[in-house]
Design brief:
By secondary structure, this protein is α/β, with parallel strands linked by helices. It has 16 helices and 23 strands. The structure holds zinc ion.
Length: 530
């Protein structure tokens, strides 16, 4: 009996670029087609040719609308893919705003690079894809309800299960040639607002499980406890009199906060609060949550997003008008403060002693959000030095991802697994930690590399048919040259954030000093050994 094969094209040994290809009886189906995100060396992979012929694919199954899972669909359509893209109805609606927005960012980025004077002699940069490509991809989307078996392509049957991660997110169960497979997609935590805990079938031949937080355990927090933390921050911010500025991700985190703020206002804990949502993408995402409100938990039958205390800011003039406010809550994107309207709210509120900046999401290294959390006293925003006098606060109990214990419990609930448990979508430390934690739960626990091909027979171990692309290891696993390239690209930007020529020169002198002393210490040690 011929077994289906599985090729790993992304999210193997790394968190982003989710893309798995399943082949059987001359049919080919992708699960996810996501962007690589993070350091520039990783994002360069988005421009490499696909490792398959897009025109020869029969279908795509999509777990959810985050760009690291769906962000290469426009390129797939541009390069000849014409099959159906299967996902939940909520995911389809979210793709309708996420893909054109991602395309606009790609177009602007290419534009910006082409306009830079020092590129004058180089050939023009073309965007990864255009808004037109995004629209072509959207034409192919076919929504499917959860818990319903359907034919993806001849010989491929699938069923979508609630993954509890974001609106519309699903795990994907596949029946192919006698093999029974499950792809977790991203899994949500227990006790998440809006969504039931993740679900899935039992008794599989092979299982793929994400590992984002495979090495992190959190204390369980109930929605009520999370709301109490938010209440304390809002109350304290109001006591100081200025604005409460919250950098948010447009999709899901904005709506979680709106739900909690609506409950706090209606419950009388923070009466008469005025909340401004100043991100066009967040406003559009909220409309999609409204449309699907009957599928959401915790809504108490109310239309919480149409709250009299909520004001969705559209025009740039209205956005600038918010500068005159005091005592308001301002939710704005981007979540890590690298772009978008949040930057002008920071410019106006960071210098105010009475304002508060509250972080409620992950801040990657090198971002303005992280710089503020690390206690910078001055930052550089849009070419201007800005003093930080506002209070900088954080709540880290909002999460869209299952932690280590929840991932292990999810794998346990899928038992028995006759063949392989493939751990994907994680950094090396998280993958190794989850491998340790799931040891008794599968015959073989495998950490695949990009480029590997596996046969997935029914009832027995998976067999590796091809090894991975070793040349990608350096890009994914961050050797010193990647660290150097990251530092080099950030260095100028970070120096520019320091106010004043003299202070910048002082910072450069200190960097040199660290390197000199490091070299001298190494030399002394070498001398001692000799
Ligand atoms: Zn996700």
């Amino acid at each position: 009996m011929i077994a289906p094969t599985l090729t790993f094209h992304g999210a193997a040994g790394t968190v982003t670029g989710s893309c798995f290809e399943i082949a059987f009886a001359r049919r080919r189906v992708l699960v996810d087609c996501g962007l690589f995100q993070g350091p520039r060396s990783l994002e360069a992979l988005n421009f490499q040719p696909f490792a398959f012929d897009p025109a020869a694919l029969d279908a795509v199954l999509l777990t959810h609308a985050h760009l690291d899972h769906c962000g290469l669909l426009p390129r797939l359509a541009a390069e000849g893919f014409r099959g159906p893209i299967w996902c939940t109805e909520a995911t389809r609606d979210l793709l309708g705003i996420m893909l054109p927005d991602a395309a606009r960012i790609q177009e602007q980025e290419a534009d910006r690079r082409n306009r830079r004077a020092d590129r004058a002699d180089e050939p023009p940069v073309t965007p990864l894809y255009t808004v037109g490509d995004a629209e072509a991809a959207l034409e192919l989307v076919r929504p499917m309800p959860l818990d319903t078996q359907f034919e993806v392509a001849p010989g491929f049957r699938a069923r979508l299960w609630n993954a509890g991660h974001i609106l519309g997110s699903a795990s994907i169960e596949l029946f192919i040639g006698g093999s029974h497979l499950l792809f977790s997609g991203d899994l949500g935590p227990d006790n998440k607002s809006f969504h039931l805990d993740p679900a899935g079938p039992r008794g599989l031949d092979h299982l793929l499980c994400e590992s984002t937080y495979g090495d992190r355990s959190r204390d369980p927090v109930t929605p009520a406890q999370r709301r109490a933390l938010l209440e304390a921050e809002v109350t304290e911010a109001r006591r100081h009199g200025g604005n409460l500025v919250i950098p948010v991700f447009a999709l899901e985190r904005t709506q979680e906060l709106l739900l909690d703020l609506a409950m706090l206002i209606d419950g009388g804990q923070v009466p008469h609060l005025q909340v401004f949502i100043d991100s066009p993408l967040a406003s559009r995402a909220t409309e999609i949550f409204r449309k699907h409100r009957r599928e959401l938990q915790d809504m108490a039958g109310k239309d919480v997003f149409r709250h009299p205390g909520f004001h969705f800011v559209e025009s740039v003039d209205q956005s600038i008008g918010l500068n005159r406010l005091s005592g308001a809550v301002i939710l704005s994107a981007s979540g890590m403060c690298e772009a978008g309207r949040i930057r002008h709210h920071l410019k106006h509120n960071l210098p105010r002693h009475d304002s508060t900046i509250l972080f409620v999401g992950f801040q990657a290294q090198g971002t303005l959000g992280r710089t503020l959390l690390e206690g910078a006293r001055r930052v550089r925003i849009s070419g201007r030095d800005v003093a930080v006098r506002a209070r900088i606060r954080r709540i880290d109990s909002y999460s869209a991802h299952a932690d280590r214990d929840e991932l292990i419990a999810w794998v346990k609930a899928r038992q028995p697994v006759a063949g392989g448990l493939f751990l994907t979508h994680g950094e090396p430390a998280a993958l190794e930690a989850l491998k340790e934690g799931t040891k008794p739960l599968a015959q073989d626990i495998l950490i695949p590399e990009i480029g590997e091909i596996w046969a997935l027979p029914a009832g027995t171990s998976a067999k590796r048919l091809r090894t991975g692309r070793g040349e990608l290891r350096a890009v994914l696993h961050h050797d010193w040259q990647n660290d150097y390239a990251d530092l080099a690209t950030q260095l100028k930007q970070r120096l520019k954030r320091i106010e004043g020529e003299q202070n910048r020169r002082e910072a450069i002198a200190r960097i040199r000093d660290v390197l000199d002393r490091y070299g001298a210490a190494r030399a002394r040690r070498a001398k001692k050994r000799a």
